[in-house]
Amino acid sequence: MTRMLARRTVLQMVATAAGVGALGRMADAAGNDAVTIGWPNDIPSWDPNQRFTPDAQPIFKAVFDQPIDQDPQLKLIPHLIKAWDLKPDGLSMAVELRDDVVFHNGDKMSADDFRYTFLDRIKSGVKLDTANSWKKVEDIVIESPTKVTMKFNAPAPTAPQWMAFLGSYVVPKKYIETEGLDNFLRKPIGSGPYKLVEYELNSRIVLERNDQYWGPKPKIARVTIQIIKDPSARVAAIQSGQVDCTVNVPVREVERFGHDANFAAELNPITRVILLQVRNDLAFADENVRLAAHHAIDKNALSKAFYGGAAVPLSVVATPGTPAYLADFQFAYDPKLAEQYLAKSNYSPGSPVKVGFAASNGQFPSDYDIARAIVQMWKKVGIEANLEVIEYAKYFELNRAQKLPEATLYSWDNATGDPEIFGGYLLNPKMPFSAWKGMDVGQKVLDLFAVADYEKRIAGYRDLNRFAVESGASIPLLQSVLTMVRKKNLAYTKYANGWVLPQSMQWSA
Amino acid sequence: MITTVFTLLGRRLLAAVPILLIVSALLFCALRVLPVDPAAMSLPPTATIAEVEAKRREMGLDRPLPQQYLIWLKDAVHGDFGTSIVFRRQAGSLVAETLPATIELAGLAMAIATVLGIGGGLLLFYLRGRIFELVADMGSILLLSIPEFLWGLILLFLFGVVLQLLPFTGRLSPGLSQPHITGFLLLDALLARRFDIFWSAGQHLILPAAALGLAFSPAIMRVLRSSLFDVYQEDYIEQARLRGVSERRILLGHAFKNAALPTMTLAGVQFGFLFSGTLLVEVIYSYPGMGNLMVDAVRNADLPLIQTVGLTYCVVVLLINTAVDSLYVLLNPKLRVR
Question: What's the pLDDT score for residue A31?
């Protein structure tokens, strides 16, 4: 009996193995109702309000909905809220919610869920990053099941932008309150186009189409997001067909895949900037040195060498197409002018000024290589930089302790494209990112944080961007790129901020 | 015999307490002197410097280091290893969630390393004085010089990309769901009688386990060979020959048993290293174990998580060493007499 069972078990295993192999091949052959995406990072938590992680946003956007969305060109568009009206003083915003939205468990979304997300659960003491982004919310008055008014205790000019930004996802009040937060984290539900059906930490996320979705239904029924942290492994996975598309692969691999007829390989410029965060003291107290440091950098050469020429050289801390980008302002690459600036301060290639320079290694593509190239460019004009590698996490501690060197290579992501989240944050002396502590620039930034009028605010940031560069407080370098490789017959919608959304994907014949 | 083993186990476990205290204190101090700011890391980009300072105070980072350690130790004794900065979950529960996957991987890797190591060691010894000895010797040195992450990349490229024989991402194929019973996927699949899952999990385990096994087998191979050389100097080998026992039986029936003891000791030590070696291999194969978690923790300066994972590695190595020592006592009558 035992022997028979054992033999049967073995036969069953062999048959199953053959079946699994056949199923795999069938899935490949069918392929049009499922997609596997190789993604570089896992989500930090299934509470979408909890942590601000730019890489996780496309995954959150599949399961949860935001009050306001962005179109591929980043224009704000209605989503869960049909209309919004930010008052001229920026102290309140009236919002009209859709009345046809249901969560994955069938509960209807209402003004209660909105208030709970942006006020009640923040005030309840749950540790959420949204507690910081929405700290100005004083009250949310429910006028009707679909109409609410947000009241702020200080002008919140970027409230609409933040409604479409990190962490701003409406969560189900009733479900969290009845099931508890732990159960919500184990079995999260949102109102998004996909339902979460399986999650394994650091391994994979399996989503299934939400057939009750209020908006356009996704074309692909099942999405598997395979977490593959190693870039070489992501390349191998797409090459071998284990995933259908992947992002953040090395630039040279994109060029290689570009020659393969089975794949589409892209270098997409996105709303992420690579810049030098500079101090206003030490050797960089001298404006001549700062301006020389900027004029000495050949950004075109950096783009060609490390990003296949796809990374757009920047003259301001904003990317093309965003509101405060200055298309007509160019900060020239001019090593002769750099030498002239340095000569004014009695420096030359023979008698160089010594500066400290920090860069991460592996935080974003080619970061350390870019830093080394800049060191060489500076050397030619008379700036001798001592390059040190720092961890991204170390940046905050060094900055807090005023121990950052004169310049630090840095990368900054801003999916909204709004200038407050570019220059506003990077040059705000009260925020942990700004290495520049001078109030000449700092006060301008602080003033702009209180300007509610959109046109006035944008004009102010355009002036600020130019002023910061012309005074050497900011050294923007390049617009970063998102590398993507996908099977040729897998189409998706390209977003200017680099979102790769499963709900926008579809197979072509 | 059992009493001797239990006495040894008791002694080892007692000795483990001060070792763990020292390791935890060293780890704690080393992490706290790193120039990273966990308070800033735990706050969103919109946080002001004042808010970061308030967070530092809330996290107790402004207190003297010994005081911080004692608070941590008190909580740890009660099973609270702190909250992960990245995941905002208990560090202990994150480790508990990922540890079975790493044990499964390390266990299979050790089995591969042992089989290859013993097989290779016997082969190396068998080829002594023959024309192929030099080639085999060179081969074992070559194997010894390739680290586990390089094996990982070589096998991935060969069997995953070129031949496309085996999967190399995660633990299961898309379309299959993991049964959650013990956390040990192979075991869970068998308990759930899901042989399709067992097969898929096995396929996913082969490459990372082989990468680790291949990297750690040469040491076993070479120690076994040199132990066999020592054993062959003993008189009883010659006496066996005089009794007409075949060379094969002398090797496998007599010499191997005695040469296996030092080899086993080395294998135990190797298992500790192999367990730590899972870190890079897990990243290469997107294998959701503790190593992968550690990489996340280090990248984000998640000090509570680094501390917990580091301590878990220490506990596992101590347990392995204790188990190997106990096994050694069981197998070696001389030690039981003492």
Answer: 52
CA triplet B298, B299, B303: central angle to 5 degrees? 40
Q: At A355, which amino acid appears?
A: V
Q: Please name the member of B44, B89, B153 whose beta carbon is closest to the beta carbon of A132.
A: B44
Closest chain B CA to residue A233: B284
Tell me the three state secondary structure of residue A209: strand
SS3 of A394-410: HHHHHHHCCCCCCEEEE
Please name which of A273, A167, A264, A266 lies closest in space to residue A486, comparing C-alpha atoms. A264
B86-132: per-residue pLDDT in tens? 888 899 999 999 999 999 999 999 999 999 999 999 998 988 888 88
CA gap A483, A481 in Å, rounded: 6
Please answer yes or no on whether A27 and B175 come within 8 Å at the CB atom.
Answer: yes
Of A167, A159, A161, A157, nearest in space to A76 by CA:
A161
Task: Summarize pLDDT for B192-218 with one digit per residue, the tens.
Answer: 999 999 999 999 999 999 999 999 899
- For residue B161, give the nearest of A133, A201, A240 by CB distance: A240
Residues B324, A204: Cα–Cα separation, whole Å: 36
Q: Write out pLDDT tens, residues A110-134.
A: 999 999 999 999 988 778 889 888 9
Average of per-residue pLDDT values in chain B: 87
What is the distance between the alpha carbons of residues B108 and A458, in angstroms, rounded to a whole number?
60
Cβ–Cβ below 8 Å for B160 and A236: yes
For residue B326, count other CB atoms closer than 10 A to its CB: 16
Instruction: Using a CB–CB cutoff of 8 Å, tell me whether A19 touches chain B.
Output: yes
Is B307 within 8 Å of B28 (Cβ atoms)? yes
Residue B196 forms contact with A (CB below 8 Å): yes
- Verify whether the Cβ–Cβ distance A431 to B44 is below 8 Å: no
Contact A251, A483 (CB under 8 A): yes
The ipTM value here is: 0.81
Q: In angstroms, rounded to a whole number, what is the distance separating the alpha carbons of residues A23 and A31?
A: 11
Nearest to B44 among A42, A133, A201 (CB): A133
Are the beta carbons of B199 and A17 separated by less than 8 Å? yes
User: Does B177 contact A at CB distance below 8 Å?
Assistant: yes
Residues B236-256 have a mean pLDDT of: 88
φ and ψ at residue A239, rounded to 5 degrees: -60, -40
Looking at residue A402, what is its pLDDT?
A: 85
| Mean pLDDT, rounded, for A452-460 | 93
Tokens 């980072």 locate to B61
